[in-house]
Amino acid sequence: MLDIPLSALEVAMVQTGARAVDTLRDTAAFAQGVERLGYHRIWYAEHHHSPAIGAFPPVVLTAHAAASTSAIRLGSGGVLAPNHAPITLAEQFGTLAALHPDRIDLGIGRGPGTFDEAIARALRRGAGPTSDAEYEGDVAAILSFLVDEVALGPLPEPWLLASSTAGAALAARLGLPIAVAHHIRPDNTQAVLECYRAAFTPSRWCERPRVLVCVETVCAETEEEAAWRIGPMDVIKAGLLKGLSEIPFPTPVDAAAHSFTEQERQSLAGFRAQQAVGTPETVMHRLTQLAGETGADELMLTTPVYDLGDRIRSYELIKKYAEATAAP
């Protein structure tokens, strides 16, 4: 039985043949659907210059979803500190927290959010990659500005996103809850958590280690249908294995016709085995297993499927199965 909160990560995939504005319209419907199903929070990821993912600022999507819902927690997962002035992030999320008390999260990450070096430099006004010390300084400054400068009242809940032991060590030093990107680098998950828990120092933000694990999750009535729905993301991942980042998000039909090499099939199968894809029973078994292996306080599900209805249906099947199998 899985007895920890379940949440959602929305990456706002732009469907082939659709417009970015259509994806934007879907975000409110998605937030309302996930709230209705009883999920704990929704986070929005920061991406730039991708034909498959909209370049929608997390702070804007958070504001839009907060205005469209009433209770679910919302925030960034994450907003990328090197791309923004610390005072700006503090003001933006501090304002959101004042407008929507006890509902706003500020998940902070380090990556550029793009594979295009020119775009990364443009985001950083010509600066190169951020050093460890600069990143730590940015995160500390954001937290300081939230408390000392913005001071609008209720504060957003800060989290640090991590997929490496360096990120885990920083979260531990600052006493922040950690969101582990198992959906990106699953082989690093255990090392990240061991580092974080061993070095954790309590702070005003968090008294004890607090762990959220994000897992790629696609649920359908049959195993075959789940595999069909995850097919477009398999094409994206296969392209990344080849160093190709400019790949549109294909339709399930186009994905089914895609030819994978044997090496790609093996890599995709290995990755999928560490995520949660299949029927409600299969998915819940894997989520329960992952929660046990990691000691997670919360699981966040990211469901990169083509159709909005199918995406919400995946979350619905999981919730219904969890409720049906819960202990009395």
Could you write a compact summary of the structure shown?
Helix content is 48%, strand content 15%. α1 (20-37) packs parallel to α12.
Word description of this protein:
The protein is an alpha/beta fold. Helix content is 48%, strand content 15%. The chain has 12 helices and 9 strands. An 8-stranded parallel β-barrel has the order 1-2-3-4-5-6-7-9, surrounded by 8 helices. α2 links the parallel β2 and β3. α11 crosses α12. The longest helix has 19 residues. The chain starts with 5 loop residues before the first strand and ends with a helix. The relative contact order is 0.14. The mean pLDDT is 91.
**Sheet/helix structural class:** alpha/beta
Shape: globular
Mind describing the biggest β-sheet? 8 strands, parallel, barrel
**Helix content bin:** 40-55%
User: How many angstroms does the end-to-end distance come to?
Assistant: 11 Å
Task: Give helix and strand order, one letter per element, not per position.
Answer: EHEHEHEHHEHEHEHHHEHEH
Provide mean pLDDT, rounded. 91
State which percent range the strand residues make up.
5-15%
Cross-sheet strand order for the largest sheet = 1-2-3-4-5-6-7-9
For the CA atoms, what is the radius of gyration?
Answer: 19 Å
- Low-confidence runs of at least 5 consecutive residues: none
Number of helical stretches of at least 4 residues: 12
The count of DSSP E runs of length 2 or more, i.e. the number of strands, is 9
